[in-house]
């Protein structure tokens, strides 16, 4: 139960792009009919973090992780959880002769595909929202294709090649995290949750050859050796730390 806080006066904000009822957003006029804490048609309104409460007077869900200073949905389409998926595609950095590169301490260097988000300018995993009817596995591939391979702008032939690349990379996933994300868009009534999955190239040839090209949400894309001083989007530093730890890679110190 939230602690009483009588002075709490959050601002009410739902961005016009959300309030104008695009297909990906809830229509608040129908909120009383939504099946919260359940699968509601094509929309998964179940939280990974447990059962959330509903405000009696507004029928809006209450963020399980406390107050954000904002009521309404802000920039988010759904009331309650907005589900996303984050691919963490990793490999060992290699020298021209194919050997694994090592840092000053002799530790192997792990690299992860990161994008620079156009909205905040921060480094982020190339993740995105699970669209109605899609699964997490489909979203992982779709978002990686769109943001790290620019599949949206590829012609039909190139798109087939990219599909083969993505199918090859996304074979053996290791789930890193599922739950709430500390996303800057979260409000008291709408928040981000994600499933982060690591796909790792152990051998240097498992992924085959492909070129990174930024697309959609991504201003740029690169293989990045992440260090603790880098400003990463939302909770992405937590996911990265977990991957470095599971792969016994050196994350460095801040
Ligand atoms: C974050 O927002 C998630 O971890 C995921 O990376 C991202 C999804 O939103 P968009 O990239 O579609 O804006 O909370
Ligand atoms: Mg996207
Ligand atoms: Mg995205």
UniProtKB/TrEMBL annotation:
Molecular functions (GO terms): ADP-ribose diphosphatase activity
UniProt-listed CDD domains: NUDIX_ADPRase_Nudt9
Gene3D superfamilies associated with the record: Nucleoside Triphosphate Pyrophosphohydrolase
Residues in Nudix hydrolase domain copies: 92-249
One family name in Pfam for this protein: NUDIX
SUPFAM superfamilies: Nudix
InterPro entries the record matches: NUDIX_hydrolase-like_dom_sf, NUDIX_hydrolase_dom, NUDT9
Matches recorded under PANTHER family: ADP-RIBOSE PYROPHOSPHATASE, MITOCHONDRIAL (PTHR13030:SF8), NUDIX HYDROLASE (PTHR13030)
Name by which UniProt lists this protein: Nudix hydrolase domain-containing protein
Organism: Monosiga brevicollis
